[in-house]
Description:
The chain has 14 helices and 19 strands. It is of the alpha/beta class.
Amino acid sequence: MNKKKGFFIETxxxxxxxxxxxxxxxxxxxxxxxxxxxxxxADIILxxxxxxxxxxxxxxxxxxxxxxxxxxxNTGLFVGVIGCGAQLEGADFANKTGVVDLITGPQKISHIPxxxxxxxxxxxxxxxxxxxxxxxxAEVENILRDSSFRAGVTIMEGCDQSCxxxxxxxxxxxxxxxxxxxxxxxxxxxxxxxxxxxLLLGQNVNSYQDPSPAGLSFAQLLRAVxxxxxxxxxxxxxxxxxxxxxxxxxxxxxRPTLCNHVHLPLQSGSSAVLERMNREYTREIYLExxxxxxxxxxxxxxxxxxxxxxxxxxxxxxxxxxxxxxxIRFDSIFSFKYSAxxxxxxxxxxxxxxxxxxxxxxxxxxxxxxxxxxxxxALYVGQVVEVLVESPARTxxxxxxxxxxxxxxxxxxxxxxxxxxxxxxxxxxxxxxxQGELVAASELELAAGS
Length: 450
Ligand code: 5AD
Ligand code: SF4
């Protein structure tokens, strides 16, 4: 293989895909390849794709259209499509665009260097979307991380649930759990290298069950990660409500390093819709979990995912989702129009909601949430909060970071603060972010004493 070639991975989709891209980058660098600074500079382009909604697939087709023009001028350009979108579309990505050299899914990331090598040597396109039989997620020693203070860590992959709308069990396969000692060894190594925030990742993260003799439950693993010296913040995503047990709330209460934020996808506030979604809980069961979270002595922020326009969702069902939002007052939500996915059970359901109605419901829901968030954020004005400074802000402020309960805080300060924990006094609140001023050490002491 021509090791001088520069590679560039464009990532679509979720945080698991993002971490996969970092793992693949590490594997390619181990092979002697060089990361390119941009797609324009690269000879090898990999699109790490998502399949969750049809829009995600269409984005890839449009990128492949652009790359086709580029390849006409540079015939040496290598284009690979990997990830969940590739697993779903398979050969279609190659056949419909005529530009793709490699297609493989998210279960095969550790084979990508070998596959790349083969295609570059033999000059024959390769498609491999067989399910990976290994019972364990791929172990990657040298992950090429893009942050020096925050790191995603895989604890499990795949999913054994059968939510009727969801493509993930088909793209990422059956659930595979990583050994607890391996996870903890990775976290210790990260802490020793200066990482302070850990994001535990899995498609159904709280169904985690350690396959090694230690047999840690998810809550036990969470506690153990929170106790690793040097680790200041631990997050996890995404849990399933049915596996959301009280011991997770207890752990968050007892370990200040475990962030007081839980993202717990609701999907719908109507039990009838939840049943057709095959979510295995009712409106009442979700409410019980939300009330338990809200009753926690340490306030725990709660965010969620909601799908509007699922087949058969009536006005009354939708009104139940809105009522649930009033009842729970989520700290934030991600909301989506239902998109039928091939191979899923719901793709066969009749009684679809038309696009205009889906768009209307989405708008109503988002406007409601905005009001709830504005009211909630107003309570923060005047408070001093701890912020992990993450990046230069996209607003008129210099810096942006997050509180432990996952609120975005924008404020002015020097760039060298990126990656550290600082105190910020909140001066203004918006629906989606807070604004504040860096608190000088002396003021902090005063605040602590008062
Ligand atoms: N259509 C719309 N949204 C979906 N999600 C998953 N599948 C679909 C689909 N077919 C949403 C769910 C999930 C989030 C990651 O994406 O809300 O929690
Ligand atoms: Fe997209 Fe789901 Fe795959 Fe993530 S796991 S990339 S959200 S399909």
